[in-house]
C-alpha cells in the first residue's frame, strides 16, 4: 500500500524531545528517562561489530554525532603495573576505531580504580578514575582525538553506575555518595558543590531539567527526593519519606519535568515500590506508588504518552499509567533475568519501541539479553543474545543506530532507511517547489515560491504514488500518475504572499518506511488559470 500526502498528514501527538539524536549519558538525556527522538531498528540488522578488544566487564556506550565511545577493560588495574583499560572512540557507521586513550594512572589501586565515562556533550567526553573512597578529578577529553582539555578542580567519588547529567550549557553535574557538584564545561572550575547523603555508594546520580536537579537523599525512616536549583545548588524542597533502608537506583523524570520517579527497592517486597511525585513548583507531592521488582542501576524508560516501563515483582515487563501507576500493558515474564539482582537499561525510540536489557553480569555468561518490544508490549520484535553485557546499553544514536556492548564486542544495529526528496522537472514547469525528506514521526515541509514565478496567490500540493509524465495544454507537464486512485489534491494553508509553506506531521507508522511518493505543487488564484511546478520524488525514511 502506497502512502499519500493525506496519510502523511495524519496528526501525530508527540511530547517534545531534544533535537539532538545522541545518547550523552546514562538514561539518554538529562531526565534519565530513556527517551530518544530517533527511530531505532525494527529488526536485528547488524550494522557492525568490533571485537578487537575483549573486555572483562562490559561498560556503557555513549554516542555523540558520528562517534561511539566506550571503555574496554582487558583486566583490573594492578599496583605498580598497568591500568589495563582504555577509552575508545568508534565510527558510528562502520565501527572502525578512531582513537584510544588511557586516562592518567598513578599505579595504586588504593587511590584510583577503573576508568569510567560519565557522559559526552558539546564535543567533550567526561571521564574519571574516581570511585567511593577514592576521590579523583573529572577529565574532559576532546571527542576528536581523545586529548585531555582540562582536569577538574573538584574531585568526585562517583563511579560508572552513578552517571552524570548535563545543564543546558553543557556543564556536567556529578552526584556521588557525599556531594552533588556542577563543573564548568569550559575550564573545569567548580560552579557549585553541595553536600548530600546517598543511601548506597555507586548509584547516586541525579536527573535534571533546565532549571533544577533531582536526587535521592537519606532521611529519618527512609529516603526522600530532593530538588535543588541548577544555577547555584540551593535546596528548593523535598518529597515525603519513602520507607526503606537502601536503594541503588537514580531518579528519573517525565518528559515535561513535571513528575519525578524513583524506584526505591532493596529486595524487601513490602517496601519495594516505584514512587511518583508531582512537582507543583512549591513541593514534591506523592501521587502514587506501585510495587516493583528489586533492581539496581536501573535506567527506566518513559514513552511518548508518559507511560513508564518497569518490572513488577513477578519478573514481568509492564507499562504503567503515569497518572495512577496502574498497569496498562504486560509483556509477561522475561527470562533469563538476574537472580536475585536485576540491573536493566532501557531506551524508547520515537515510534515507542522499547529496548530493554537484563543487565546480565552473572553465570552462565551467555544469558545476556536485550529485547525490543512494540510500545504496547504486545509484540517482541526481536531478542539479542549477549555475553554478560552488564552496563553495556542499549544506547540510541543518529540514523536510528542501536549500540550495545558485551564482553566480546561493541556492536551496532540499524534498519537502514534514509528519507529522500529528489528534484525532477520537465517541459515548461516553473522550478518553484522544494521539500524536505519525509522522516517518520517528524515534520515534512514543502515550500512553494508563488510571487517569484507565476504570480499566483495560492498553492495546493498534489500527491501520487507512481511517477508518470503527462503533458497538458500550454506546455505544462504533470509529473505524477493521475490514474493512481490514491492520488488527491490537498489544500494547504492558502496564503497570499511570495512563499507558501506546508508543514505536515508524518505518522509514526513504520509500515510507511521505504515507500515512494511523488508530489507537485499547483499554483492558482491569479494570473493564468493555474501552473504546475516541478516535482519532488519522496521516499519515507526512519531518518
Global outline: globular
Proportion in β-strands: 35-45%
The biggest sheet, with number of strands, parallel, antiparallel or mixed sense and barrel status, is:
5 strands, antiparallel
- Low-pLDDT residue intervals, each spanning 5 or more residues: 1-19, 466-496
Radius of gyration: 26 Å
Can you count the beta strands?
Answer: 43
Question: Which structural class is indicated by helix and strand composition?
Answer: mainly beta
What is the residue-averaged pLDDT?
88
Distance from N terminus to C terminus (CA atoms, Å) equals 21 Å
Count of helical segments?
1
Q: Helix content range of the residues, please?
A: under 10%
For the structure shown, list the relevant keywords.
543 residues; single chain; five-stranded antiparallel beta sheet; mainly beta; globular; disordered N terminus; 1 helix
What can be said about this structure in brief?
By secondary structure, the chain is mainly β. The chain is built from 1 helix and 43 strands. Strands 14, 15, 16, 17 and 18 form a 5-stranded antiparallel sheet that branches.
Can you describe what's shown?
The chain is mainly beta. Helices cover 1% and strands 41% of the residues. It has 1 helix and 43 strands. The strands form 11 sheets. Strands 14, 15, 16, 17 and 18 form a 5-stranded antiparallel β-sheet that branches. A hairpin with a 2-residue loop joins strand 2 (62-64) and strand 3 (67-73). The radius of gyration is 26 Å and the shape is globular. The two termini are 21 Å apart. 51% of the residues are buried. Mean pLDDT is 88; it is low at 1-19 and 466-496.
Amino acid at each position: 500500500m502506497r502512502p499519500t500526502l493525506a496519510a502523511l498528514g495524519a496528526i501525530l501527538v508527540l511530547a517534545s524531545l531534544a533535537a539532538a539524536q545522541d545518547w550523552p549519558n546514562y538514561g539518554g538525556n538529562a531526565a534519565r528517562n530513556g527517551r530518544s527522538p530517533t527511530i531505532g531498528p525494527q529488526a536485528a540488522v547488524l550494522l557492525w561489530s568490533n571485537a578487537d578488544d575483549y573486555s572483562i566487564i562490559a561498560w556503557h556506550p555513549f554516542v555523540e554525532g558520528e562517534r561511539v565511545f566506550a571503555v574496554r577493560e582487558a583486566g583490573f588495574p594492578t599496583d605498580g603495573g598497568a591500568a589495563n583499560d582504555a577509552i575508545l572512540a568508534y565510527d558510528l557507521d562502520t565501527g572502525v576505531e578512531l582513537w584510544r586513550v588511557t586516562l592518567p594512572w598513578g599505579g595504586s589501586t588504593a587511590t584510583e580504580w577503573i576508568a569510567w565515562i560519565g557522559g559526552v556533550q558539546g564535543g567533550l567526553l567526561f571521564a574519571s578514575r574516581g570511585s567511593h573512597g577514592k576521590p579523583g578529578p573529572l577529565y574532559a577529553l576532546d571527542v576528536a582525538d581523545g586529548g585531555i582539555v582540562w582536569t577538574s578542580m573538584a574531585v568526585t567519588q562517583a563511579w560508572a553506575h552513578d552517571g552524570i547529567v548535563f545543564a543546558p550549557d553543557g556543564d556536567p553535574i556529578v552526584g556521588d555518595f557525599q556531594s552533588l557538584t556542577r563543573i564548568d564545561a569550559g575550564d573545569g572550575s567548580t560552579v557549585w558543590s553541595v553536600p548530600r547523603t546517598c543511601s548506597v555508594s555507586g548509584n547516586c546520580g541525579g536527573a535534571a531539567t533546565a532549571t533544577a536537579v533531582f536526587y535521592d537523599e537519606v532521611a529519618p525512616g527512609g529516603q526522600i527526593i530532593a530538588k535543588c536549583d541548577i544555577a547555584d545548588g540551593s535546596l528548593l524542597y523535598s518529597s515525603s519519606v519513602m520507607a526503606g533502608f537502601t536503594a541503588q537506583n537514580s531518579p528519573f523524570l517525565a518528559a515535561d519535568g513535571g513528575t519525578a520517579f524513583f524506584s526505591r527497592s532493596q529486595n524487601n517486597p513490602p517496601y519495594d515500590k516505584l514512587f511518583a511525585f508531582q512537582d507543583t513548583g512549591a513541593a514534591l507531592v506523592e501521587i502514587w506508588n506501585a510495587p516493583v521488582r528489586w533492581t539496581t542501576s536501573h535506567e527506566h524508560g518513559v514513552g511518548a504518552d508518559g507511560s513508564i516501563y518497569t518490572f513488577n515483582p513477578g519478573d514481568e515487563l509492564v507499562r504503567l499509567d503515569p497518572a495512577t501507576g496502574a498497569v496498562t500493558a504486560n509483556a509477561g515474564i522475561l527470562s533469563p533475568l538476574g537472580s536475585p539482582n536485576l540491573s536493566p537499561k532501557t531506551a524508547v525510540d520515537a515510534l515507542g519501541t522499547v529496548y530493554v536489557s537484563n543487565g546480565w553480569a552473572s553465570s552462565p555468561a551467555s544469558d545476556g539479553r536485550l529485547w525490543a518490544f512494540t510500545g504496547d508490549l504486545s509484540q517482541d520484535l526481536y531478542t539479542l543474545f549477549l555475553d554478560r553485557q552488564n552496563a553495556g546499553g542499549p544506547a540510541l544514536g543518529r540514523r536510528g543506530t542501536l549500540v550495545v556492548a558485551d564482553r566480546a564486542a561493541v556492536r551496532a544495529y540499524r534498519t537502514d532507511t534514509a528519507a529522500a526528496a529528489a528534484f525532477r522537472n520537465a517541459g515548461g514547469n516553473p522550478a518553484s517547489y522544494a521539500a524536505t525528506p519525509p522522516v517518520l514521526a517528524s515534520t515534512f515541509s514543502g515550500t512553494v515560491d508563488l510571487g517569484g514565478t507565476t504570480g499566483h496567490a495560492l498553492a495546493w500540493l498534489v500527491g501520487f504514488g507512481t511517477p508518470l509524465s503527462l503533458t497538458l495544454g500550454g506546455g505544462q507537464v504533470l509529473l505524477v500518475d493521475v490514474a493512481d486512485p490514491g492520488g488527491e489534491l490537498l489544500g494547504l494553508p492558502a496564503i497570499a504572499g511570495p512563499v507558501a509553506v506546508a508543514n505536515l506531521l508524518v505518522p509514526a507508522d513504520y509500515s510507511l518506511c521505504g515507500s515512494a511518493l511523488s508530489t507537485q505543487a499547483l499554483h492558482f488564484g491569479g494570473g493564468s488559470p493555474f501552473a504546475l511546478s516541478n516535482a519532488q520524488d519522496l521516499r519515507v525514511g526512519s531518518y
